[in-house]
Design a protein that fits this description.
About 65% of the residues lie in helices and about 0% in strands. It is mainly α. It is globular and about 65 Å long.
């Protein structure tokens, strides 16, 4: 069993007094990035807003207008509170200035309020809270041997198209939440594993989707912090970590535990009545399986077949509608199936992490745990691809193989987010911004890390990957023209409305699955 090398990994990073670690020492180029990004985001204030905008406005109203005992019971709006308590407390804090700016923002019965005051306020809160991410990314740059490369990666994360699309146009607070995640990862890089566990526990109580990453944290903290290199438990450390995590959960869940509302809270956080796929198929393994079922169904309809067809699957949500998912030909997938498959794949990486509990091994296993959950989880949202893309970015400069994996996953992952925005102006913005981001990020890393292929299979694989990446150009053209052609050619154009979404999902799924296989192979075979 390998010995924990955490100390050796971080010995070159200076340990400063806590008050010095709080200072950021921002350079002029970093101020320029902040200024540019802020100015650009301000220009997006009038842009398209999804229903998530009203969701968060309603949560401001719930937490401001109602006592805490009614937060997880209120059904005034269909957008009920379904995030953990720390996020509810976060909304409560944001509701205070909102009530002074415009009292109608926090009026519980003022549904679908869209005055300029609420638009500007909520957009500003996303920009300001995202500064948590910016501050943490600056800390990633400080004290590392190759600061230029890390500066590029940090800048690429702060300017990531995923955050622009999902947070600053569509509307969510992912930048703030990933700032907490990366703060936890940063503490692990510096060997402060107790602090790393604390911040991850805090994050879980902000948004429970980060449970996908919990297995990697559990194994790493147990092996690297709570156990000696020889494998014996260190009771004082184990108790310290347990107490920290318990205190965080008490602070979050304590009031609801005292009120006897834990069952109600859990019913809001984990609604298992949803189907295998989201309305727009997340680009994962189930998207390909669902598409295969659709192909087999069409084959059975047109040519006849010996296999049976389930009538309930003919009109299920695998056609792109909201609701449960039933297959017409293939066996139906149940939540227990997705759970077992996810745990099974994660166990492979967790065993590797247990044997090599270093920071780099932890970061890769963390990425793969999130990746596995995205690939095989139940009712995965397309926005969950950020759980893959953000930690994977920290591995991009390891070597050319990791960079290539990062490039394929990032291209497919970002493109899979494009259907979130369906208005022409925003579609142009997301495509142009993403292309410029890719050029600025990929080209310098490619020049720095490029390795000439040493075998014929490597040449073939590299060529196929390049062809795949260039394939996004005709894909976007096809997706853009498809609705217009359907109106001209097809008599019933409504039948073709889901086709652009399906094409995007399936093409991106191919790239993301291949990148998943690449990263898995690189991790398992690494020394």
């Amino acid at each position: 069993m390998a010995v924990n090398t955490e100390k050796r990994d971080t010995s070159n990073l200076p340990r400063l007094p806590w008050f010095q670690r709080l200072t950021l020492d921002v350079t002029s180029s970093e101020w320029d990035i902040l200024t540019f990004s802020t100015a650009f985001k301000l220009l997006l204030f009038p842009a398209y807003r999804s229903t998530d905008f009203e969701v968060h406005r309603n949560w401001l109203a719930i937490t401001h207008s109602l006592p805490i005992s009614k937060w997880y019971y209120d059904t005034t709006s269909e957008w009920t509170l379904d995030y953990p308590p720390f996020f509810a407390y976060f909304e409560k804090v944001l509701s205070v200035p909102a009530s002074f700016i415009d009292p109608r923002i926090v009026d519980l019965n003022n549904l679908n309020y869209s005055a300029w005051s609420v638009i500007a306020y909520q957009r500003v809160t996303v920009i300001l809270t995202e500064l948590v991410l910016g501050a943490v990314l600056l800390k990633f740059v400080r004290g590392v041997p190759d600061s230029n490369t890390q500066r590029l990666i940090s800048a690429s994360l702060f300017l990531h198209p995923g955050f622009l699309i999902v947070d600053h146009i569509h509307f969510q607070y992912n930048g703030f939440l990933f700032g907490i995640l990366l703060l936890s990862v940063l503490q692990a890089r510096h060997g402060n594993l107790l602090a790393s566990g604390f911040f991850f526990a805090v994050l879980l109580n902000f948004k429970h989707i980060y449970m996908y990453l919990a297995p990697a944290y559990f194994v790493y903290l147990l092996r690297a912090f709570c156990m000696s290199p020889q494998g014996s438990i260190l009771p004082s450390r184990f108790l310290a970590l347990a107490n920290v995590v318990i205190l965080v959960f008490i602070a979050s869940l304590g009031p609801f535990l005292l009120m006897g509302q834990i069952p109600q809270l859990l019913s809001r956080l984990f609604p298992f009545t949803r189907g295998l796929n989201h309305a727009y198929w997340a680009p994962n393994a189930w998207a390909l399986l669902t598409a295969a079922d659709r192909v087999l169904l069409q084959y059975a309809k047109r040519f006849g077949a010996s296999f049976s067809v389930d009538a309930s699957g003919v009109s299920s949500s695998s056609r792109g509608l909201v609701g449960d998912t039933s297959f017409a030909v293939l066996p139906n997938i149940k939540p227990i199936h997705t759970f077992l498959i996810t745990i099974g794949f994660q166990m492979v990486f967790l065993v590797k992490l247990w044997r090599t509990p270093t920071y780099r091994s932890f970061l890769t296993a963390l990425t793969l745990c999130g990746y596995t959950s995205f690939m095989f989880g139940w009712h995965v949202h397309e926005k969950a691809v950020l759980l893959v893309l953000i930690p994977l970015s920290l591995l991009a400069a390891e070597n050319h193989a990791y960079f290539r994996t990062f490039m394929i996953a990032s291209t497919a992952g970002v493109a899979s987010l494009f259907p979130l925005l369906f208005t022409p102006a925003e579609q142009i913005i997301e495509v142009i911004y993403s292309v410029l981001w890719a050029i600025v990020v990929f080209r310098p890393l490619q020049r720095q890390l490029y390795e000439f292929p040493r075998s014929l299979p490597a040449v073939i694989v590299g060529s196929l990957e390049t062809i795949y990446l260039w394939g996004f150009l005709p894909l976007e053209i096809m997706v853009t023209l498809c609705p217009m052609l359907a109106k001209v050619v097809a008599q019933d154009s409504e039948k073709w409305e889901f086709l652009p979404l399906m094409l995007t999902s399936l093409y991106c799924a191919v790239g993301l699955i291949w990148a998943y296989a690449r990263l898995s192979f690189l991790y398992i075979t690494s020394k």
